[in-house]
Amino acid sequence: DTGVSQNPRHKITKRGQNVTFRCDPISEHNRLYWYRQTLGQGPEFLTYFQNEAQLEKSRLLSDRFSAERPKGSFSTLEIQRTEQGDSAMYLCASSKRDSSYEQYFGPGTRLTVT
Amino acid sequence: AQSVTQLGSHVSVSEGALVLLRCNYSSSVPPYLFWYVQYPNQGLQLLLKYTTGATLVKGINGFEAEFKKSETSFHLTKPSAHMSDAAEYFCAVQGAQKLVFGQGTRLTINP
Predict the structure, then answer these.
(1) Could you give the CA distance from residue A78 to residue A84 in angstroms, rounded to a whole number?
(2) What do you get for the CA distance between the two ends of chain A, in Å?
(3) CA–CA separation, B90 vs B6, rounded Å?
(4) Cα(A99)–Cα(B94) distance, rounded to whole angstroms?
(5) Beta carbons of B43 and A45 less than 8 Å apart
(6) Predicted confidence (pLDDT) per residue in A3-50, tens digit
(7) Deepest in the core among A9, A70, B22, B92, taking most CB within 10 A?
(8) Phi, psi for B102 (deg, rounded to 5)
């Protein structure tokens, strides 16, 4: 069990560019979550997958954001036409489908839009 | 809808002193509550959780929290602070399939 991994750890991009982040969950976990954390704030929920199905999306997830989990394993989060307001830490978490509700977080991807 | 309020964005204690981080929640259903810790430039690590049963829950690194339904609180404590406890702490409540976090409390330990 190697934990949740995220790549890249840091991304600097210019406004208007597209970026894609990857999350690899713990292998036996079928639930995967994306959160966004801005400076000095707690994480905010973006979206959630159970296996390959995207079951819930936050209103924070504008139409410039898209997430996929094509085979129910790793997930990608893409931001199109980035804006300076997209600068944040993007956190991925995974959990088992049981009653514990324990979510295990990856180290995050810090995005800076210049 | 669920929500969490953490009282005090910054708490400073001396090494060896009691740590008390406050969390109040709002939930329309029996809550599942969590405390996470975040070190600089890292993800969140689960300290402890309350689901059902015993209201005093013990976690890692000597931390514990008590669920008080009448006060809608889930405060985090540690009897004796260590320098390595310096970090950001987040209280969270389970809402549907997602976690709803408070704004966090930054804990500073003075030598």
Answers:
(1) 15
(2) 36
(3) 8
(4) 11
(5) no
(6) 999 999 999 999 999 999 999 999 889 999 999 999 889 999 999 999
(7) B92
(8) -80, 180
pLDDT band at A99; cut points 50, 70, 90: low
Give B81's DSSP letter: -
Helix (H) or strand (E) holding B6: strand B3-7
pLDDT tens-place string over residues B25-65: 998 888 899 999 999 878 899 999 999 888 899 999 999 99
Q: pLDDT band at A102, cuts 50/70/90? A: confident
Best mutation target, A103, A109, A110, A111, to test chain B (most B CBs within 10 A):
A103
For testing contact with chain B, the best of A45, A50, A56, A100 (most B CBs within 10 A): A45
Three-class HEC string of A3-54: CCEEECCEEEECCCCCEEEEEECCCCCCEEEEEEECCCCCCEEEEEEECCEE
Return phi, psi of residue B85, to 5°. Answer: -80, -10
> For residue B70, what are the contacts with CB-CB under 8 A and spacing of at least 6?
none
Per-residue b/e over B43-58, b at no fewer than 16 CB within 10 Å?
bbebbbbbbeeeeebe
Kindly report the nearest CA distance between residue A6 and chain B, in angstroms: 10
Tokens of A45: 């929920």
